[in-house]
Design brief:
This protein is an all-alpha fold. It has one domain. 69% of the residues lie in helices and 0% in strands. The protein is built from 3 helices and no strands. It has helices spanning 19-27, 32-70, 73-84. The radius of gyration is 24 Å and the shape is elongated. The two termini are 47 Å apart. The mean pLDDT is 91.
């Protein structure tokens, strides 16, 4: 799913939402459909990010182990600078 836009055909759905929440949204002139769409969009992106971390955990663990063993490029630069009097 790409970015939210007004070009995607809309589908009518029924939602059950707390009355106080709806009343407060209406008092503040919040577009309830747009707010619901934004919340669903965020939930989808959060789930995609969570799944990405699960799917890539073995590679991330491998990279963390490599950095723990070998350090980072920045570590080597700082060591070189300290040894050579660089600023």
């Amino acid at each position: 799913m790409g970015a939210m836009d007004d070009f995607t055909p809309k589908i009518r759905v029924n939602l059950t939402v707390g009355g106080n929440l709806i009343n407060e949204a209406r008092e503040r002139n919040i577009n309830i459909s747009r707010a619901a769409e934004a919340g669903i969009y965020k939930a989808i992106n959060d789930e995609k990010a969570r799944q990405w971390l699960i799917d890539n955990e073995p590679l991330l663990a491998e990279r963390r182990a490599w950095v723990e063993k070998n350090g980072t490029f920045g570590d080597r630069v700082r060591t070189w600078k300290a040894a050579n009097g660089a600023v």
